[in-house]
Every structure is written in structure tokens, then in C-alpha cells.
Write a structure and sequence with these properties.
Helix content: over 70%
Radius of gyration: 18 Å
Strand content: under 5%
Number of domains: 1
Structural class: mainly alpha
Largest sheet: none
Distance between the termini: 13 Å
Order of helices and strands: HHHHHHHHHHHH
Length: about 220
């Protein structure tokens, strides 16, 4: 049941966690719009999507998935890629902005866990570990090069023109492919989501904490039990 099970056991902890988790998803989208504005596209700014007001960003299904499944999404921030200066660099920078923001948030959370005060506080340790876990998942998941995920836009600009066109046409089916891999893959023994997340997240976690992603996951699980 994911984090939603915490609502039944400890409602106060759940709602205190809800704020940093929801803002992790929102920060991902705002980062796209903010970097787009740096490269000359103000579509997100003029549509009011550079605000941190959650009501402007939350997607109902994505928010529910965050707490039931362990990852989620907000409404995409509008970006007009044709307005970007230095279009190739601009598109890559805008595409990676959300993932890098999640990695930054996870890094800050993991850094704070090195302080004795946070390590010995059940509440702060739990919050920081879950924030780190969610942001590692969000950043890693969005780097998967399947449309419409962020990694696909980066890959697209390194493909030959004929393959780029075919790859763009895949976007209409991309979300179905992603959900198929997430929910149907494990049924046939294809845990591709776990492989990709562990592949991206393990080096990151080992570098900053000395623990693997799996070990951090177990720590979080035990704290929530």
C-alpha cells in the first residue's frame, strides 16, 4: 500500500511527510519551467506555473500514485521548445532540470542525515530518508529514455533524423509502455523498473551514504513499521 498505510498508523507523521513529498514532485516541474525561462521561453512564467502553489501543479492521479505506489507526477509545465535559444542545449537542459532538482533534494536530505541530531531523531530520520528515497526514484525514473519521460528528449537529440522521427511517433504510446513495464512486467518476471532504478540509484547512494539503494529502502521500511 506504500506510504498510504502510514496514514492509518500515524496520521500526524503522514501529513508532515506529505508536504516535502508533494513539493518534491512540484519542484521537478517548476525546474523545467525555470530553466526554460533562462533559455528564452516564458510560456511557464506567463501561465503562472513557476509558482510553488500546489493547486497549480497537482495532478489527481499522480498525487494518489505518489502515496500508493511510491512515485508520482504533477501536471507538466508548458514549454515551447521552439522559443529556446541554442535549441539543442536548451532542450537538453530543460529536460534534465527536473531530474537534477530531485537529485539535489535527495543529496540535501542524505547530507543532513550525517548529522547526529537527525540520525537520533526518529521523526527527522524518517522524513529525510523518505524524501531521499522518493527523490531518487523520481529523478531516476524520469531519466528512462521512453517518451514522454525526460530522458527520451535527451536521447532524441542524439539520434539520426530518421530514427528521431520514429522515436517521436512513439510518444503517443509511451505512457502505455511505461505503465506496462511498471505493472505488467513483474507479473511475467520482468522487473525492469527495479533494474533501472537500482542501476541509477545505487552509485548515487553509495557515493553519498555508503549504503546501497536497497539498504536505504530497508532502513525506511523498518522505520515505518
Amino acid at each position: 500500500m506504500g506510504l498510504i498505510s502510514l496514514l492509518l498508523r500515524d496520521p500526524i507523521m503522514f501529513f508532515l511527510l506529505a508536504v516535502p513529498l508533494l513539493y518534491s514532485v512540484i519542484a521537478h516541474e517548476v525546474a523545467h519551467g525555470w530553466v526554460a525561462s533562462i533559455f528564452g521561453d516564458n510560456t511557464a512564467k506567463y501561465s503562472g506555473r513557476l509558482s510553488l502553489n500546489p493547486m497549480l501543479h497537482l495532478d489527481p492521479i499522480g498525487t494518489i500514485a505518489l502515496f500508493f505506489v511510491g512515485f508520482g507526477w504533477a501536471k507538466p509545465v508548458p514549454v515551447n521548445y521552439s522559443n529556446l535559444r541554442d535549441s539543442r542545449l536548451g532542450i537538453i537542459a530543460v529536460s534534465l532540470a527536473g531530474c537534477l532538482t530531485n537529485i539535489l533534494i535527495a543529496t540535501i536530505a542524505i547530507f543532513l542525515l550525517h548529522f547526529h541530531f537527525f540520525q537520533t531523531s526518529h521523526f527527522f530520520a524518517t522524513v529525510l530518508l523518505i524524501v531521499a528515497r522518493i527523490n531518487i526514484i523520481l529523478g531516476s525514473f524520469n531519466l528512462i529514455p521512453i517518451p514522454p519521460l525526460d530522458g527520451s528528449r535527451v536521447l532524441m537529440h542524439f539520434l539520426p533524423p530518421q530514427y528521431e522521427y520514429a522515436f517521436r511517433n512513439l510518444e503517443r504510446y509511451g505512457i502505455l509502455i511505461v505503465f506496462g513495464l511498471l505493472f505488467l512486467g513483474p507479473m511475467v518476471g520482468l522487473h525492469i523498473f527495479s533494474w533501472i532504478i537500482f542501476g541509477f540509484a545505487n552509485p548515487f547512494c553509495l557515493l553519498f551514504t555508503g549504503y546501497s539503494f536497497q539498504q536505504l529502502y530497508v532502513i525506511v521500511y523498518r522505520l515505518l513499521m
